[in-house]
Description:
The chain is α/β, with parallel strands linked by helices and 226 residues long. The protein has helices at 8-18, 41-44, 48-51, 64-75, 94-101, 114-127, 160-175; strands at 20-22, 32-34, 84-88, 106-110, 132-134, 150-154, 179-184, 196-204, 214-221. It has a seven-stranded mixed beta sheet, with helices on both faces. A two-stranded antiparallel sheet has the order 1-2.
Amino acid sequence: MALRLDDEAALEDFVRRNTAVTTPPLLPELRHHAATEITPIWEMAESELEREGLPPPFWAFAWAGGQALARHALDHPGIVKGRRVLCFASGAGLEAVAASLAGAARVWANDVDPLALAASRLNAALNGASLETIGRDLLAPGAEAPDAEVIFAGDICYEKPLAALVEARLRSWSAEGRLVLLGDPGRTYLPRSGLERVAGYAVKTTRAIEDADVRNAVVWRVPAPS
């Protein structure tokens, strides 16, 4: 039976059936629905999901940059407490969950993959967090972002054209007076200049998705264009 992309309950059921509840290495206080070597989504990535026109299940992994942002929010709640937070290209929403638990007044998890948004809702419920999901492409011309005061973006510098578009959008949001934080473990297309280092974290990873057992993830502040 085809997966109904407009059926939130069906999407959430798909995530439950094809992931396991685990704990991210850098976030021992959180739980999330993730792919493991024994969950079916590994085999489905190039079959059922592709047939449904969905991207690979990037949301099913706790990437190092996103973990670093979430850790930073939990350790420094003053960044988000009482503020409105947008997690851009949020995957399964770990940063959004962390922002909510750190006291954000309102949190949006944004991703173009409906399964990522389903995972975000489930992960929020697992952790007693509150968030809203937004499925529209915020890189599209004329797309309006929510009225967030803080913006998180993790692990988005892995493709050259996409990274250039994301950098321009992040800097435009910064120019509007928003605090923009980027979590990145040294992806190929991370901007080479114009970022301000905020914190660094050693994140345990798996060779299934990375080329090292530990990635050094940095939280960067993205200033407005000079």
